[in-house]
## 1
Amino acid sequence: MGRYAYFEHDADIGIEGSGKTLEEAFESAAMALFSIQSDLSEIKPERKLRFEFSEEDIEYALVIWLNRLIYEAKHLRLALCRFGLKRRDGFWQGEAQGEPWNDAMTRGVEVKGATLTCLSVKKTDEIWEARCIVDV
Amino acid sequence: MDIKKLRAITPYSWQAEGALLYGSHELISEMDEKVLEQIRNVASLPGLVGYAMTMPDAHWGYGFPIGGVAAFDADAGGIISAGGVGFDISCGIRCLRSNLSIEDIGPVMKPLADSLYRNIPAGVGEEGRIRLSVSELDQVMHQGAQWAVEKGYGDIHDLEYVEERGHIGGAVPESVSVHAKNRQLGEMGTLGSGNHYLEIQVVDEIYDMEAARAYGLEKGRILVSIHCGSRGLGHQIGTDYLILLAKAANRLGLTLPDRELACAPIHSAEGRQYIGAMNAAINIALANRQILAHLARETFERIFPGSRLDTLFDVSHNTCKVEKHLFEGRERTLHIHRKGATRAFPPHHPDIPERYRPVGQPVIIGGSMGTGSYILAGNSGNPAFASASHGAGRAMSRKQALKRWNGRQLIDELAEKGILIRTRSMRGAAEEAPGAYKDVDRVSIDTECANLARRVAHLSPRICVKG
């Protein structure tokens, strides 16, 4: 099970996901991002969405993964709570679960996009860490 | 920031290796070191004309600092940078001038706040009342606020007081991705979240009587300010082009000190493509604020039948625009990036409304929800390619603000001071605590002292609808 945390940035928010695998770190980063928008424990995983993308550079892949989730959530009008990612070389298969927004959900702040600022994906002592600034 | 790293040019301007920072010793000292690092990075980009500059409200951004201004000459290899415009393309402020006074709204503050909260779609997960088809969205991308007026959202007279008269040329919807279009279909007429707001304000101080008269301002007058941008479409364009331009820069041999400066020569296929998409987003933002102005009018009309909310001005602060400027005695056509900086045209400039020409363009510095905002006027001799501050500027990170303030408690404290906040997000309220921002009075004074713009009026918040 991965973990997530936040780091300082004057205007926006730094997110950091970690895990035993690269994919787990990316999933944790997604948890960090969507926890800014809502309380994930209140969201039911009723609907599932899937998508694929290609990217060789693992740092750009983090930004693409997060931004694709933001897009899919907006387009399908869903609050997301669970995230899954598989990788084969530069080919990525993502999925997420959630439900439509409702009035009972806690509202955080909207994330406009994941940026290239403070972008880093690295492995230290068997743990992968994936971090970047998200614009709110 | 270690001010010893800078050379004082005047008490309000500081130089460092191709960069010029505007502001007093006090504000510059309080800025994060990252501001200097980021603006120096901007100064290293090709085709820069003059200095890369920061305004007195500058703070650490991504790529460019927020409050960054940089001019590039296309014919000298100049670049266009997605990181120099930001995700929220054409974020800005529409300011409406009412015919009401503080005495008029005093007895109905709560119903007015509640009614605005119900009628203005705001916050994460909210959609607007309007749902567009893709072909309608293409029209908005070309026509901007003019589209909204033609659809009955507002008045033709509004357009006179909107930058570019409500729409900018050069929009290329074909350069906007399907994802960006999909994200916008339900987002017209929405406020968004974060630092966006709709605020009811009262004029409580006048500094420049002549300009105040031209702008129709007097003590006690109620104004409505709407702060938002191009919503999902602009955010997605920022997303799409950030990586596209970062890769293009690499391919074109541009060495970027920070990938977030993602850019391409203005005279390149990628550069032209981004400019076409950015202009489409500018028109979306202008239309969005036009619709929100209409929704505010509907609300006021129900509570104050016969009331007026005339557009005082609408100005964006996240853009890159092509402008003519006199530089070293020669007129140059330049691409002016303003990321968290407001255009501030001087008196007699042909691109400002005739009514304001004798005094200069209105410049709006939006403050925090507890302290106040300023209206200023563009000055002759502005040293920053006709640019000025855009807001109070954050002094504290959102993470720190969340630790320090509780949203509910903050809202209650502001209510005791006579400021009503309406929001669905307690987290958002805490992050936007007035104490998390710089002193807006200091920012405005420094803006005036640096000759970026001169203060005309101070506005105090009374009602704030936050996303």
## 2
Amino acid sequence: MRDTFVKTLIELAKNDRNVELIVGDLGFGVLKPFWEQLPKQFTNAGIAEQNMTSVAAGMALEGKTVFIYSIGNFPTLRCLEQIRNDCAYHHANVKIVCVGGGFVYGPLGMSHHATEDLSILRALPDVTVLAPCDAMEAQCATRAIYQHDGTCYLRLGRGGEQRIHDRIDDFQIGKAIKIKEGEKVVFFTTGGIIDEAMEAIALLKEQGYDVALYSFPTVKPIDRAVIEQCAGQYDLIVTIEEHNIVGGFGSAVCEVLAELDGNRATILRIGLNDLYSSIVGSQKYLRDYYGMSAIKIVEKVFNALKRKAV
Amino acid sequence: MNSLELAWRIKRHGVEMTYLSGGSHIGSILSMADILAVLYEDILNFDNTNPKMDSRDRFILSKGHAGAGVYAALAEKGFFEVQALKTHYANGSKLSGHVSHKGIPGVELSTGSLGHGISVGVGMALVAKKDDKKHRVFVVMGDGECDEGSVWEAAMFANHFKLDNLVAIVDHNKMQSIDFCENTMSLAPFAEKWQAFGWQVKEIDGHNHEELKNALAVSEGKPSKPTIIIANTIKGKGISFMENNILWHYRAPQGEEYTAAVKELEAQKP
């Protein structure tokens, strides 16, 4: 996913000299092709994310489309006010790219666990928030935010995600993508955790459940139409995100659901249960530990279905 | 109009705007009125009928709390009606207490949270360099603002990228929100700090228009460095009971205070 982003950005930058990339002294090895091929469109701002973000705003106000790149919480929480005041309020063409959403950097400790970024960025007006699930979505999302006028946040995994899409015909910001139909239960996922959802769907299939699946590469604006349609079509909507349960993707879905009239699906949110992880481990390990692995998803879905039956 | 007349008008508007609105920061507006006046009268290249003219010099007020001063300067320079100044702070007004760009021609950047403006100015200056444009970028900061770490991030960046088209001006009135700077967070040795960060430093009397003009003019020999002008000023300049009195960081002139302030200013009219 990360490498696809870099490749796509290089293509865009080669065709548009107003595309700039600024990094916060990260991307060694990954971004080398960019700075080797396009040195005049590359800046290393050093380890200073506040300045990096405002510099990007200043450049964008002068007509550039500026991608700023860092990992984990550094390009978001460290410089949140710069994003809010200098980028978003000025409708600046700054594209904030985070590698390492969720527990990608699991062994590195809580400083590197990006588990509140979606909710915090989503709360900012005029910030578009995307979290692609695989390389194909990442490619489409990179192109889409380049085209999109204004401040965007792109949350990426690191790499090694499953290939979900062979092709995407009509990628649009704000549109969910249907992966499969099903009955009674539908999964909504955002980002790379779709891998766990797919595995859970396979396990549930063995138990006789045919679960539908949608990927939401855009968290804001959320795809209201798909949520409304699924709320009528299914009994249970399960949101799955590698992120705190408060304020993120599941909350965005709830906000739409809660305002719907009449009979509608109930909702189960799966994510990190409002805590920081003081243990470390691989992404896979931490997903399981905190109840987001395929097995844990299956357990939670069964419990929810049992409650519904009562 | 010359810069002395513009400075006087900025002060006069500032006092009236804070009086009418009950707004804060008159001390800070008065301390930088001369800096603004010289910039808008003698230094900045702009076109009030085309505020986004590509070749314009960029001006950012990073100490956004003194935004009334910028509104006054822009109104006097014909960017919008002087009458609009009376809506400062008012319900439904665009003229926010901290300077805003939305719907206000001539304002490049909305500020209000300190330590942002210089970094945005750095970004603008970097683009001018990359695209081989000749305009300059000016940023006015407060001295208390230099407590913000992001200012020094920007200082390092501007030096590293040799942004000699960037001019920062510190309105060094020696006071911040609740006390003198030196009692709050020592800045000294202030000029040496900027020198150590690789900047060309000019230290001047920030109320002397000739010194301001000389310092703000393009440096001879182009030193390949960003320039910082430490403009030594007096908070509340021009109104005796406001000068060097921390009370006037927040207090708005009321009743007899307003009358007395206007009387003092009228006596100074150039």
